[in-house]
Amino acid sequence: MAWLKIASLFFLFIILFMFLFNYSNYSVDFSKLGYVDNFVAEIYLKNRLYDTVFEVLVFSLAALGIFLFNYSEEKKNLFLHENHIRIFLRFLSYFVILLSFYLAYFGHKSPGGGFSAGVAGGTGLLLYALSTTINEFEYLFSKYKVKIVEKWILLLIYVFSVVSLMGENNIVLLNILIYFKVMFGTWIILYSFIKHRGII
Fold this sequence. Notes:
By secondary structure, the protein is an all-alpha fold. It has 8 helices and no strands. It has helices spanning 2-22, 39-46, 48-70, 83-105, 113-130, 134-143, 146-165, 171-197. Helix 3 (48-70) packs parallel to helix 8 and helix 5 runs parallel beside helix 8. The model has no long low-confidence stretch (mean pLDDT 72). The chain crosses the membrane at residues 7-26, 52-71, 87-106, 112-130, 151-167, 173-194.
């Protein structure tokens, strides 16, 4: 039954992508692209809706892979006992998260933008997870209601995508929203993997 659901979802995604590509116009007038220093970032953000659909697909496949992996092998417990390693990872996680926000804020100057910054932020969360216990990590996950916040951020991205069609274009804010969406999505996958596999 699970494979039937997977095949149905895959079929729906194929239909959706065929519809998007058939009715999409990718002709770009570079004379009108003067808002940022990087034309790649400008084109990327103007087609944000399509990129968001692909991101949802990537995270859905990652979550599905974790779900199937959890039932394929027995659980194993691994621990980090060395305090100096925990302290170093905790310090490094703060530095990486701070640097990732900097990348998001100035994302309009690089092709990756908020997405690559969100991946860097997710890496910082991974380092933080390795420096703490599962109980503390689970407490932070529940305290900040990460799943709900991630859905609200995704909704805001859609709203800003519609607003941008009317001429408004706030690239910095959109990059920051993308950054938090990717980072929280990474947090959800990381939390699911740690909780069900018992890594920390």
